[in-house]
Amino acid sequence: MAKRLPRKNDAASIAARRAALSLDGAATSVDLSPYLKAAESVTGVAVTPVSVAQLRISLGQYELTENGDVVETGRAEDDVVVPLAHTEGGLTASLQRGARAVAESGGFRTHVLADRITRASCFVCRDAADAIALARWVEARVDEMRDWLRSADLPELSRYAVLREAKTHVVGPMCHVLWRFTTGDAVGPNMMTRNAYALNMAFVLPNAPVVVERAVLEANMGGDKKPSFEFFQSGHGKTVVAEATLTDEAIRRVLRTTAEDLEALAWVGTHGAVASGMQSVAFTPASAVAAVFGATGQDLGMVGTSSMAHGTGRRVEGGLHVSVRFPGLEVGTVGGGTTLPTAREWLALMGCAGAGKVYRFAQVVAAAALALEISASAAMATAGSENFFRAHHERGGLR
Questions:
Q1: Mean pLDDT, residues 335-351 taken together
Q2: Which of 56, 147, 157, 310 has the smallest set of CB atoms within 10 Å of its CB?
Q3: How distant, in Å, are the alpha carbons of 46, 375, 396 from that of 320?
């Protein structure tokens, strides 16, 4: 059995891990002090190149009401430089091509529809009748639970995670409860997990009208860090729509295809998505989402949920209206990896660093993904998908 490596993040443990693993190259040449609170057993860094793309976007300004509704308070055009961390040849060039076609057609327009993040707990009761009684009891006490979270003297509670709704689903003796929170400018999984645990153990269990045999903090009904119908429909994180109206001229000159070809591809692709049971109706949103996430210190595990998308394309006079809906963009501009030096710098480049910037950031991510969707779709829409083939052939790896 291999010798057990030290686990602490002190200087001696880091040096011992490096020595044991014979690491003395670029991966370990960086000062690790800014990274020691971000992870355990920190030993080095992985450097990924960051390229940039330029987007013209009509961005909404949004506020969260006391009831948890997202309300638009203004709108402004902005030129945004978007950082993309990746090693996928052609991604940045393709995304920029889509952005150029949109800029020449009037720019992107983005809209934030909703803001919720969910922890899916479960209470196992004696039978279905008890589970139904518990579900009705929980749903009737959301206001009381919200007030309890605000006033309870428990050190683990987060004042930033505000309970908004509780959605229940009974299966046999199981009462699944989706606690739905808003968490400010943070993504919020840690804070809403703490608050959900307190609700389960210190509110529901002591006061439930029936016997609860087991409480599970996360019972997988929502689909944490995975695509799911629940999140595709009801949202998780920020729900954002990005749209643009491409002119026939921009489609012909920049994208080198036609609106008719793009519309035909959308028809084929939509039916392909339905036939496969895909929890998305889109082409390649994960590439753009992951690239922005990698540059800005987002939780990479959340690409799974965040890249769920529903794209549309419709012929209009003089061009093609295109859009993409992201029901579950799990993004933050404070906390977690956003505090790391390079992540903070890239967020600041977009005007998305710190408090009050999360809705802007969510819109930028959606617009960047739509730019890539437009360009990649245009390459696929050409006769025989020749442009898509040539892009991968010319930029491909091993022969």
A1: 96
A2: 147
A3: 41, 13, 31
